[in-house]
Amino acid sequence: MSDSELIDWEQLEMIFGEEEDEFDEDMAELFHEFVEDGNGQFGKIDAAEFSSDRAVIAKESHKLKGSASNFGFTRVANLLAHIEDDIETLTFEDFTQSLQAARADFEKSIETVMARYPGLTAGAN
């Protein structure tokens, strides 16, 4: 998978600017909050019982999808949209595979963005 399939770089440039621009520390803080909140939302989805908490899964997937989309995490947003939109018809196996792929792509997206914007690493907690 190429970086352009994983990340919407134009979206991130609207947030962080061009690579050669002065790095905005406030935006770096927002990115780190997004990562922390995203991990929390994945935790809520993981903790939900698939057979009885589908509304919770859809709600948390929706929230995380929006945040992921705002930060240009295209593949993550698409996988979470699939979970949200199809929650009533998903099999447990499809749900599990989609969630695992979304989480793996979330981690890969974080690494990819931090590699491109070294200022993010300096602001990491």
Please describe the structure with a list of short key phrases separated by commas or semicolons:
mainly alpha, 0% strand, 7 helices, 125 residues, single chain, Four Helix Bundle (Hemerythrin (Met), subunit A)
Quick summary:
The protein has 125 residues and is mainly alpha-helical. It has one domain: Four Helix Bundle (Hemerythrin (Met), subunit A), CATH 1.20.120. It has helices at 3-6, 9-16, 25-47, 54-70, 74-86, 92-116, 119-122.
Can you walk through the features of this model?
Helix 4 (54-70) runs antiparallel to helix 5 (74-86) and helix 5 (74-86) runs antiparallel to helix 6. The model has no long low-confidence stretch (mean pLDDT 90). The protein has a single domain, classed as Up-down Bundle (Four Helix Bundle (Hemerythrin (Met), subunit A)). The longest helix has 25 residues, at 92-116. The relative contact order is 0.17. The chain is mainly alpha-helical. It has helices at residues 3-6, 9-16, 25-47, 54-70, 74-86, 92-116, 119-122. Helices cover 75% and strands 0% of the residues. The two termini are 29 Å apart. The protein is elongated, with a radius of gyration of 15 Å. The protein contains 7 helices and no strands.
